[in-house]
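Prompt: Have a read of the protein record below and flag anything odd:
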Amino acid sequence: MALRLVSQYEVSHTFLFPTTLKAMMKDDSDPRQHFDLSKLQVIMSDGGFVGDLVTHCCREGLGITVNEMFGQTEINEMVGNSFQRRSVLPGRRGRPCLGHRVSVIDDEGRELGAGKVGEVAVHCNDIH
């Protein structure tokens, strides 16, 4: 259904959950052969990890690199990828979006280094 709608309405930019992307790839391994997806330029995804397999299938089947994002109900999409600006590595959520200062912190509020487990925090003077 999603591929039919993208084709019918000549969608160029879309947001699709990872589960939707997985279902699309499962239903049709060569969607460009069955649908006109020539207008499709950007796919954003959040709500779970897209993963290596779906990333590969979207690149091969749709000709699109999926940009993963991370956000919360209280502050949508504060971190994200943009394959147009830099390479996208599967499983990585990207960098803080413009105007956001985002860090991973410990229980005392100290910023942690790469690869450390902690809480995602947005600076209190964030401009958004």
User: Anything to note?
Assistant: The first strand starts at residue 13 and ends at 15. Residues 99-128 form one domain. The chain has two domains: 2-97, 99-128. The longest helix spans residues 51-62.
